[in-house]
Amino acid sequence: MNVLFLCTHNSARSVIAESIINVLGRGKFKGFSAGSQPRGEIHPFALDLLKRLNYDTSNIRSKSWDEFADPSAPPLNFVFTVCDDAANETCPIWRGQPMTAHWGLPDPSRAKGTEAERRHAFADTHRMLYQRISILVNLPLKEFDKLTLQKRLDEIGRTVAASSKQDA
To answer: Tell me, what DSSP letter sits at residue 64?
Structure first.
């Protein structure tokens, strides 16, 4: 199943999610990421975090979501927006009629403070995405009808977001 994670700049949250699902969902899910206004480079703190956590970063790049609207793009099963800006934009038409959900998270690249505090924001983003994606890859997808699955996808974004706010 092909999963696309969207964020405006495709430089942090979406690439972290792509990396996570390609490990947790190996053999079942293939992750991709893109942005409506890609920055053209991965945020150095995101790249450093992924390398330190032993994710393969060799194929990660900041790219436009237009690549996934192209007829030659892989058909998508799921599309998740991980930032509020991208969720409010008009998305292209995706091949495969994917299910969509909004899993918004704060932008770690906007974190203020010391370098350690800013790096912590990236680690926290990874933690929240890891939780959400862990739930997704373990869902018994074949047991759900489309409406039930849509409710579960929406719940994943709300439930984990609520628990992370309680941790703060």
So the answer is: B
Tokens of 165: 């706010």
Closest CA to 156 of 105, 107, 115: 105
Residue 98 · residue 39 · CB < 8 Å: no
In CATH, the number for domain 2-167 is 3.40.50.2300
Nearest to 16 by CA among 95, 109, 150, 78: 109
Element spanning 131, H or E: helix 115-137
* 106 close to 160: Cβ distance less than 8 angstroms: no
Spans of all domains in the chain: 2-167
3-class DSSP state of 81: strand
User: Distance between CA atoms of 1 and 73, rounded to whole angstroms?
Assistant: 14
| pLDDT per 10-residue tile (average), the chain, 168 residues | 95 97 96 94 97 96 93 94 72 84 94 97 97 96 94 88 48
Q: Tokens 């700049």 sit at which residue? A: 9
Instruction: Report residue 91 as tokens.
Output: 């998305």
Can you count the helices (H) and strands (E) in the chain? 5, 4
